[in-house]
Amino acid sequence: MRWEAEVGSSGGAAVALRGATLRFGHHVIWENLDLNVAPGECLAILGPNGAGKTTLLKVMLGLLKLSAGTITIDGRPPGRGRADAGYIAQQRLFDPARPIRGRDLVQFGVDGHRPGLPRTRAAQVDPDIEAVGAQGYADVPVGLLSGGQQQRLRIAQARAGRPRLLLCDEPLTSLDPSAQQEIVAVIDRHRREHGSTVVYVTHEITLIASVVDQVLYVAAGRWAAGPADTVLTTRSLSALYGSHVDVIRVHDHVVIVGEDGSRPGHAGHPP
Amino acid sequence: MAVSCGLIGPFVVTRGMAFAVHGTAELAFTGAAAGLLVADNPVVGALVGAVVVAMLISVFGNRQSERDSAIGVILAFGMGIGVLLLGFYQGFATAATNILFGNIFGVSGSQLIVLLVICLVVMAVMGTCYRPLLFASVDPDATESRGVPVRRLGLLFMVVLALSVTGAAQVVGTLLVLSLAITPAAAAQRLSASPLIVPGLSILFAVAAANGGLLASLQSNVKASVFITSFSFALYVLARLTGPLLRDRRRRALHRSHPADQEPPHPSPVPEPPGTPARAGER
């Protein structure tokens, strides 16, 4: 497909941050962040609420500017609205009365940002609808679909923009466990078939542990990056939080417990 | 005017802005009273009033939860001023009634041209912005990620809304604008989910109610707004009655197609559990 050919030729990293710092006024969100994500790699951004995980996605989308440092996507600074990055928002159910069908939603991925009247071109969206297995319900008003079905359509929409980078902002929240596994599988299949780079923002490393190559943990303005096994350890996270936190592994679940018994940005299953 | 109302209607409904329509319309009344007092021209006054208010609503009530209270605050204050201004006006009392309940036959030739221009402006803006606006109404986060200036688009829509509402108010009056700006769109939504058919039906309903109402009013001594509101209400009731039938048909179609959902077209090494049951089936 169109975007496949360009992946290898870009050479360097799919996402590269150098000394990246973001401040709102005097409040430092994170600083001196260095990160390299290779093309086709899967990165998970973890951390407690308010640590600036979604903010980092917005920087990658070019919607927010860094206070200092640089960011490049495929060697170029991200441009607002450039189709390099596809975005899958947190799962929120559509209003049942919403007069819009699944295929309209996917079509927005092709031309939703361009002025004009809406139209539906089956040839443009059918391949993406089939790729996520949504062909059975693409003509039904989205509000009548289950959360998992809606999320599949959001993935199809992001795909339709032909992005080489797929940014997923808590795509599994409020889905039931079987739907969560399906969505992870659909996204990972897309990554393998098209060599796309995938970035997850999530609380739930457990759900995506099998597909993640690298973890970025942000907390209290500091960060740690690397393979999940080196980042999600008692030592590395204690240094990050500046106080002792225990990282406990139970089977394939990772539980993070603070000194006071709190669960800062628990990365395992919800209690 | 009915065309422009039918066009903005679907967005008013999907964006949950019925109260905003009411708010701008009421304050178009204040503007009209001011216009009447200062320049003896209620149409221009109403236009200015509505646009100013639309911008205020956008600025104060960016989030939907804040918006309704912001509108309430502005509306109450504006109506108070309107009553005060009308008190100063020494002309005929019918002028005030015309603003509130509309009188298409009271619109002068030059005002008619103003209305026509408004209508064309609304159609031009909506023709250009329809797609991104629909995208933003459905999924603002995804729209912003594609580089669409969602907030500015919302402000532009408020201005267009103010223009349409003011225009419609000349016909049905500020108190009854909802019958052209919301009822046809709400009826259309009951019947279709297609992004082209919904505005089409909405415009059709609005035009049918407005023209039918005018004709009926010519045949009798009753004001046109009475017929327009009744016709559009009748269309809505009809749509509510037939809508569930269409919806059931769609749900059955969803059920029939459900097995396809369980088998992804590409073989996957990760075992996938069977598709979640359609929510529609459970209700």
N-to-C span of chain B: 40 Å
- Principal-axis shape of chain A equals globular
Total beta-strand segments of chain B: 0
Please count the beta strands of chain A (DSSP E, at least 2 residues each). 11
Percent in strands of chain B: under 5%
Q: How many distinct helices of chain A?
A: 9
Biggest chain-to-chain interface with counts:
A-B, 67 and 52 residues
Order of strands side by side in the largest beta sheet of chain A? Answer: 5-6-7-3-8-9
Question: Secondary-structure element sequence of chain B?
Answer: HHHHHHHHHHHHH
Overall pLDDT confidence of chain B:
76
Explain what this protein looks like in three dimensions:
The complex is a heterodimer of chains A (271) and B (283). In chain A, 50% of the residues are buried. Chain A is globular and about 55 Å long. Chain A is of the alpha/beta class and 271 residues long. In chain A, the strands form 3 sheets. Chain A has a 6-stranded mixed sheet with strand order 5-6-7-3-8-9, sandwiched between helices. In chain A, strands 2-1-4 form a 3-stranded antiparallel sheet, with no helix packed on it. Chain B is mainly alpha-helical. Helix content of chain B is 80%, strand content 0%. The C terminus of chain B is likely disordered. The chains are: A alpha/beta (271), B mainly alpha (283). At the A-B interface, helix 3, helix 5 and helix 6 of A face helix 6, helix 7 and helix 12 of B.
